[in-house]
Design brief:
The chain is built from ten helices and two strands; from the N terminus they run αααββααααααα. It has 237 residues and is mostly helical. It folds into two domains: 66 residues, Winged helix-like DNA-binding domain superfamily/Winged helix DNA-binding domain (Arc Repressor Mutant, subunit A, Orthogonal Bundle), CATH 1.10.10; 152 residues, Four Helix Bundle (Hemerythrin (Met), subunit A) (Up-down Bundle). The longest helix is centred in the middle third of the chain and has 22 residues. Keywords: DNA-binding, Transcription, Transcription regulation.
């Protein structure tokens, strides 16, 4: 029988109190010595429990006289970081990343067409302008491409999809950073496809946005995989 460590038990108890809302965002947890007194656990156990919560982005620790451990909630960014670690740790194949994008991104485009704001359109337009820049080098083009794809997810205003697509887009960026693949033809096709999809999103035409996005990510995946002969990719920070 596996007996949980005392630090895991304490971390689980505090985690449930945070996620349930009993401990509100911004509230300071009791000081270390007070937690030791309340729980009858050692200081080392309490410190380890707090480290677990910090890694899980459920508290932030500030030093100094006004410091301590303060409650926070998981964010879209923390979710994206977790997915990124999974992709890197499991060495997920580029083919699997592209396949996942084909499954998700057409729906992201549909949501964007339904929920987008003028600010969302401004982000997509700026990314499209950067993609069309004839003087952009490969990193600049790929960054603009990433900004557009993440921008489509953000325009849908679904936090789960935003976090997942952010991590996925960064991984695909790393997997396709290949000047042989991203030639002038690929850039031109990408530019036209993105503007066409953006137009559908602007017009709130969810059906067209989803259909055009599906066609775009499928053709991009097919071309990328034809160039990629590796079994897996390594995503760097």
């Amino acid at each position: 029988m596996d007996v949980p460590k005392a630090s895991d038990v304490l971390a689980r108890e505090l985690r449930e109190r945070i996620l349930s809302g009993e401990l509100a965002v911004g509230v300071a947890l009791p000081a270390e010595r007070e937690l030791v007194k309340q729980t009858q656990m050692s200081r080392a156990t309490v410190r380890e429990a707090l480290r677990i919560l910090e890694v899980q982005n459920l508290i932030r620790v500030r030093a100094g006289r006004a410091g301590g451990a303060f409650v926070q909630r998981p964010t879209t960014k923390s979710m994206a970081n977790s997915v990124s670690m999974l992709i890197r740790g499991q060495r997920i194949k580029l083919a699997d990343l592209l396949q996942t994008r084909e499954a998700l991104e057409p729906f992201c485009a549909e949501l964007a067409a339904r929920n987008r704001t003028d600010d969302d359109l401004a982000v997509l337009d700026a990314a499209n302008d950067a993609i069309a820049d004839p003087d952009a080098d490969l990193p600049a083009f790929l960054q603009a491409n990433l900004d557009w794809h993440v921008g489509v997810a953000a325009a849908g205003h679904n936090e789960l999809l935003i976090g997942f697509m952010t991590a996925l887009s960064h991984a695909i960026y790393a997997g396709t950073e290949n000047p042989t693949f991203v030639d002038e033809n690929v850039r031109a096709i990408t530019q036209r496809a993105h503007r066409s999809i953006t137009t559908a999103i602007r017009n709130r035409d969810a059906e067209a946005a989803g259909r055009r996005m599906g066609r775009h990510v499928h053709s991009y995946a097919k071309a990328a995989l034809a160039m990629d002969k590796r079994g897996a990719i390594r995503v760097e920070d």
